[in-house]
Write a structure and sequence with these properties.
Chain lengths: 114, 116
């Protein structure tokens, strides 16, 4: 079962920041938070991941609370092409034969509107 | 190629037939994953290969489903005696394990299987 909870859907105005929340209250010390998105009819696309510090890349920013029980993905200037299902996943940092697999929940459907 | 390649991109088969779906991971990636996505649904984990370790088969829905990974590279997902409920997009992903540390997974575009 997925170890994260996300709202099923959100709307965002084009050009505004999209803030997507994720709860992962049972996260353990060696687990990262990963974000992926899936645009309609495409395979999932990696966005960003982090352990405990905030992270930023060319696509998004990831803000992780100090207790690591929740996080927020920020798309600073959403465009219509950002309309997608966004998945928040927790995953062990050390992979072996029985860890490291990615378990997807239902995600958040983000609709960016003109 | 630069990315994960899956073939065929589309497959239509008759109920009761066996099908094989192929995944070519990114060169050098030691981890390989198979997922299934039914219409309008989320991604359902099927199986996970990591290096030479025994695969994690905990997501396979029945014994009609099997997968193998030859030579640590190409993987084949086999569905025997296909049923209509097997109709879905089957997605493959691969990732690199650097000294055992997980890295991001890259997904293929999937194989759309339709059982008629």
């Amino acid at each position: 079962d997925a170890k994260t909870t996300q709202p099923p859907s959100m709307d965002c105005a084009e050009g505004r920041a999209a803030n997507l929340p994720c709860n992962h209250s049972t996260i353990s010390g060696n687990e990262y938070v990963y974000w992926y998105r899936q645009i309609h009819s495409q395979g999932p696309q990696y966005i960003i991941h982090g352990l405990k510090n905030n992270e930023t890349n060319e696509m998004a920013s990831l803000i992780i609370t100090e207790d690591r029980k929740s996080s927020t993905l920020i798309l600073p200037h959403a465009t219509l092409r950002d309309t997608a299902v966004y998945y928040c996943i927790v995953r062990a940092s050390w992979i072996s034969s029985n860890t490291g697999k990615l378990i997807f929940g239902q995600g958040t459907t983000l609709q960016v509107k003109p | 190629g630069a990315g994960v390649s899956q073939s065929p991109s589309n497959k239509v088969t008759e109920k009761g037939k066996d099908v094989e779906l192929r995944c070519d991971p990114i060169s050098g990636h030691t981890a390989l994953y198979w997922y299934r996505q039914s219409l309008g649904q989320g991604l359902e984990f099927l199986i996970y290969f990591q290096g030479n370790s025994a695969p994690d088969k905990s997501g396979l829905p029945s014994d009609r489903f099997s997968a193998e990974r030859t030579g640590g590279s190409v993987s084949t997902l086999t569905i025997q005696r296909t049923q209509q409920e097997d109709s879905a997009v089957y997605l493959c992903a691969s990732s690199l394990a650097s000294r055992g540390v997980a890295t991001e997974a890259f997904f293929g575009q999937g194989t759309r299987l339709t059982v008629v």
